[in-house]
Inverse folding.
């Protein structure tokens, strides 16, 4: 299993590198573009997963007994995340800087654009289902910074894809708008749980912002009223290095906090039925209290002193170029006025 995980990490590193250098790329040219080659390699890797590593109920119990549930779920989440890393090139604001994908978004055939949006939304929903399944099955296995990263990016992709699409025809007709909101809320609840054991304050703040902006930007329940200009409000102005391609990460994927996971065995109690049965809805978690947005941000020093999270954590906050929603919150850039107008209500 670790070998498959390392292969997925290696492929993801190459996809992240590809996304950073899109000049001259025409991804919809079949069999000739780097996009097609990377996509074919990803699909080949997914098809090669043996039955012993597939997401089945017997395998869940097997890897739980072996103490490898963390890595088992992590492999499947990583594969889905790698797909989003590739397909986001036609989704506004999902690649930093947004101008790097402007030509592709402006010239892409409608079918390719729809495929990219559909894939990103579908995979983010699938990742959310896996996260919820692991939450119900064995929460201590979630305690890892890699999972915090996946949760934050899941919320980021879901919200930004919905805003970028902005068409009357929904991408996933079987999912209602309130289901998406419940996913964002559940993701935040998972991060609040992780916050008790590891340092994920920045991830929590990012996920909280995603939920707040969803409720603010999509209050009517009608995605067709959301146009592409809305995505300007969720732009991320942070240039974050791709640390997940580092040697340390590859040699020791997941399993970073075994002690914290062990501690939860002594403190957390679980509902035996909830460990096995995964609800179809996304509303089983309680809604965390969301603090009121402060639109009157003072000086940088004043804001840092009252910040809800430790700013040193942003040094290890690897967003892989996805929106974190934290740049406008700090008031560091020219987007602040637009964000303040958004949050002043």
């Amino acid at each position: 299993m670790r070998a498959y995980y390392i292969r997925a990490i290696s492929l993801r590193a190459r996809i992240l590198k590809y996304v950073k250098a899109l000049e001259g790329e025409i991804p919809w040219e079949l069999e000739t573009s780097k996009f097609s080659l990377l996509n074919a390699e990803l699909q080949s890797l997914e098809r090669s997963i043996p039955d012993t590593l597939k997401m089945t109920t017997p395998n869940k119990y097997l890897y739980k007994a072996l103490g490898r549930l963390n890595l088992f779920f992590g492999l499947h989440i990583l594969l889905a995340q790698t797909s989003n890393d590739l397909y986001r090139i036609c989704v506004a604001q999902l690649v930093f800087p947004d101008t790097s994908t402007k030509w592709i978004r402006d010239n892409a055939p409608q079918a390719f654009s729809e495929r990219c949006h559909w894939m990103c939304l579908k995979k983010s929903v699938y990742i959310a289902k896996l996260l919820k399944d692991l939450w119900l099955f064995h929460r201590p296995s979630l305690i890892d910074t890699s999972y915090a990263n996946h949760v934050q990016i899941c919320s980021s992709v879901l919200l930004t894809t919905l805003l970028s699409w902005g068409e009357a025809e929904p991408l996933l007709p079987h999912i209602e708008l309130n289901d998406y909101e419940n996913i964002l809320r559940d993701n935040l609840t998972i991060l609040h749980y992780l916050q008790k054991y590891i340092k994920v304050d920045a991830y929590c703040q990012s996920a909280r912002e995603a939920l707040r902006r969803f409720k603010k930007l999509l209050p009517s329940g009608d995605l067709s009223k959301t146009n592409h200009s809305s995505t300007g409000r969720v732009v991320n102005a942070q240039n974050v290095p791709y640390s997940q391609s580092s040697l340390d990460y590859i040699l020791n994927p997941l399993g970073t906090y075994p002690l914290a996971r062990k501690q939860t065995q002594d403190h957390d109690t679980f509902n035996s039925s909830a460990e096995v049965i995964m609800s179809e809805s996304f509303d089983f978690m309680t809604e965390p209290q969301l603090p009121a947005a402060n639109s009157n941000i003072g000086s940088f020093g004043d804001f840092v002193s009252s910040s809800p999270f430790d700013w040193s954590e942003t040094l290890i906050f690897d967003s892989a170029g996805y929106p974190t929603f934290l740049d406008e919150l700090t008031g560091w850039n020219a987007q602040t006025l637009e964000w303040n107008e958004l949050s002043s209500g």
